[in-house]
Amino acid sequence: MKLTILGCSGSLAAPGNPASSYVISVPGETDVVMDFGPGALAAMQEQFDPAAAHVIFSHLHADHCADIPSLLVWRRYHPTAPASERHRMIGPSYAPLHFGRMSADRPDAVDDFSDTFDFTAWRTGQPEHLSGLTITPFDVIHPAQESHALRVEDENGKVLTFSGDSCFTPTLIDAARGADLFLCEAAWGATSEGKPEGMHMSGVDAGRIAREAGVKTLVLVHIQPWTDPQQVAEAASTEFDGEIVLGTAGAVFEV
């Protein structure tokens, strides 16, 4: 499988870097978009067909899903290339209500988007099968209701794990165990100094998880525009001596 970063800016979009959104591609299969934050649709148009992809979500904070109403417009109303079929959407159980309100014409209405997406709710620890991938959600610790890390395995046994948004938790070690590629948030900067309980991770946290899980490559993402990413990477390297990469918009990884 191949991973393309549409954007990985933390908490909000940055110049040239949309907020969290990734595309997982398997030869001969429909692309899978993982999260769809602000700016994702514009980035997606440069390389992929927005009307021909499944969408999955780690959680529903705005920086991970705010471009969904615009995607619905594209899929429904593009004059020459709207969606030709319903694709799958997998996410927290309240996604239809959440997105329905975001996309509705009135404050008291809910847009029923079942015309263009077939929705399934994650069940913790229960894998979903999609585009030749087995995707397993793990509960993580974050203020957003039903926040998950996602472990993605292809038919060749290659593993990609996405931390979603979380503070340090042993669950992330389980989710990332033996992963070939570990996309891990490091929104708090280099260290966790001054961090409130239950809020995000640092470079040190990400490195520790990568080391204890035995991952091959750690990709640091969800770093805010006001943070020096090199300091985050250096902090991660104090815990993890494997390959560390700073995620950037447009980066492609063959897993």
UniProtKB/TrEMBL annotation:
Q: Where is the Metallo-beta-lactamase domain?
A: 50-223
Coiled-coil spans in chain:
none
Which keywords does this chain's UniProt record carry? Hydrolase
Q: Which residues cross the membrane?
A: none
Q: Which domain of life is it from?
A: Bacteria
Q: What PANTHER family does the database record attribute to this sequence?
A: METALLO-HYDROLASE YHFI-RELATED, ZINC PHOSPHODIESTERASE ELAC PROTEIN 1
GO MF term (any one): 3'-tRNA processing endoribonuclease activity
Please give the name of this protein: MBL fold metallo-hydrolase
